[in-house]
Amino acid sequence: MARSSAAVIKFRPVPRRHGFGGGPPPDGANAEQPFISNGRLAVLALIATESMLFSGLIGSFLVFKLSAPFWPPPAMPRLPIAITLLNTAVLLASGATMAMAVHTLRRDRRPRHRRWLGLTLALGASFLLIQGTEWVRLIRHGLKLSSGTYGATFYTLIGCHGAHVAAGTIWLGCVLAAALRGRYSARQSSGVEVCALYWYFVCAIWPLLFVLVYL
What we know:
By secondary structure, the chain is mostly helical. It contains five helices and no strands.
């Protein structure tokens, strides 16, 4: 009698690939992280664009300032140097607290991270409040947007920076709200880091504006 034999087929297990459902990755997919995230690239492009904007405004300001026989004009009120110097310290301190917020998040110390974010938001809002109060006083003393070249260049240049700080403050508020909901961690910190890049920019450009405009 012929002896029957059954063929045994052995299957080699396919190694699982994380992120692709256990199968091979699609064409062109790369498991490695990109050198720079899309969010950071977008913010860096924004900062480059805004740097060109401020360069143009500063160049125009210097042309008017250096060509004028008197700057500021004798009839115009003097700018509040002392209080603005204090306000400069407030904004620079907010840059330091933002750096601490990023540092504590990378170490996954979330309660401390939220406190540093809240302090940064408070300092940014304080900067805007102090600057707005000084603007009201200057307007009452006769320095207006319509007060010739001096008033126009002052409010355009300083107002442009103030608008950037206001936008950054709103962004900080949104980041803080997300942090309070537990969205960020040491592995998910890109949302905070891209906001920090923008905040560093508005903090870094202000000392230059202070020296050029107020001193």
